[in-house]
Amino acid sequence: MISKQFLIAATVAAASIAAATAVPAKEFVYGSWVSAKHGVNKAGLEPMFKAVEKETNGAVKWKLLAGGQVVSARSTLAGIRDRIVDAGLVIQVFTRKDLKINNVIFDMQAFGDDPVAVAGAATEIVMLNCPGCLKEYKKNKTVYLGGYGVTPFQVTCKENLTTIAQFKGKKIRAVGAGKRWVKGMGAVPVAMPPTEAVTAMQRGAIDCVLASISWLRSYGYIDVVKTFVEFNTGMPRGICIFCMNRDSWDSLTDNQKRIMWKHMPGVSARATIIGYVQEDAKVKKLAMAKGIKFVKGGDDFKARKAAHTKSERAAIPKSMKKLGVRNPERLINKFLEIYPRWLKLAGSINNDVDKFAAALQSEIYSKIDPTKW
């Protein structure tokens, strides 16, 4: 007969063994230079953080430090590399020398007008068709886990400017290929992160910004601008919504990696459609109620767009070769090859978050083993 003392001792021993062999909980930090209420964070990331914690039974937790508490737009890649944060939002134009090849994709702003199609095609290129892109992240001890799309960049100003001629000599916040668009208007491009542009506008350092409508609220432009010219000047792409430190990623078990991977298409889809497409519509109503004028770009804008798009076929390779990128034409041609398929997919997706996530899963994520990524 087994004694009571033996049962107690066995129970204690079993508990000790379980405690010693249990996988310790990991708390990771996502450093974001945009506000906690920005669509990237609120719509894109927060639902994923909650789902991952639940599905890993609390073994993987994410803490969001937003608003530039620990990293800025310019320092995020270095912050991830040095493990100041475990993950973050990387805009490749702000780390142009470290992510030279990735900037080829970013600079293709003039090609493709649909946010969903652009996001899908650009993410596919980075993850499936650009070993050099991934190598650049690897060199910075970083893993690219997903992208997202923004809505068209348009011109919004603190003055009532509505025609191309009126922009001559004006200072406009722009980066990447957007600087060439601004120069083509006869204006002066000023490079800076969008978080710095409100103060710059208030101080007179700039007159306008190239921005999505949603930025009026997410970055506070709604309090300083008077006019918004509705004309698509292009949109950046290939942005990394979830770049993660290599050691942090490798510290996850295979199952934890699969759980994270499963949720990445949803992050991209929500950030693109809820955070930008739907947010644009909401913010436009708010802005109009505050008296901001929305004016359609006229024939002068159309002529400028036609000339700009044509010239970009030569301007992008020239700029990228100066940066040290070999054969940028290959990536440009690959995007132009992939985009029509994604444009067709976007038509059937019709800005449905679940359908976009499913398309990202079938076209990209299902083709990669996250445990070997």
Note down, in words, how this protein is organized:
Helix 5 (about 115-130) packs across helix 13 (about 330-350), helix 11 packs antiparallel against helix 14 and helix 13 (about 330-350) crosses helix 14. The model is unreliable at about 1-20 (pLDDT under 50). The longest helix has about 35 residues, at about 255-290. Helix 2 (about 40-55) links the parallel strand 1 and strand 2. Helices cover about 50% and strands about 15% of the residues. The protein has helices at about 5-20, 40-55, 75-80, 100-105, 115-130, 130-140, 180-185, 195-200, 215-220, 245-250, 255-290, 300-325, 330-350, 355-365; strands at about 25-30, 60-65, 85-90, 140-145, 155, 170-175, 190, 210, 225-230, 240-245, 295. It has a six-stranded mixed beta sheet with strand order 7-6-8-5-9-11, sandwiched between helices. A five-stranded mixed beta sheet has the order 2-1-3-10-4.
Give a quick set of tags describing it:
single chain, D-Maltodextrin-Binding Protein, domain 2, about 375 residues, 6-stranded mixed sheet, 5-stranded mixed sheet, globular, 2 domains
Describe the secondary structure blueprint for this structure.
Elements: H1 4-21, E1 26-31, H2 39-55, E2 60-65, H3 76-81, E3 87-90, H4 102-106, H5 115-129, H6 131-139, E4 142-144, E5 154-157, E6 171-173, H7 178-184, E7 188-190, H8 197-202, E8 208-211, H9 215-218, E9 227-230, E10 240-245, H10 246-250, H11 254-289, E11 293-296, H12 299-323, H13 328-349, H14 353-363
Parallel strand pairs: 1-2, 1-3, 6-7, 6-8, 9-11
Antiparallel strand pairs: 3-10, 4-10, 5-8, 5-9
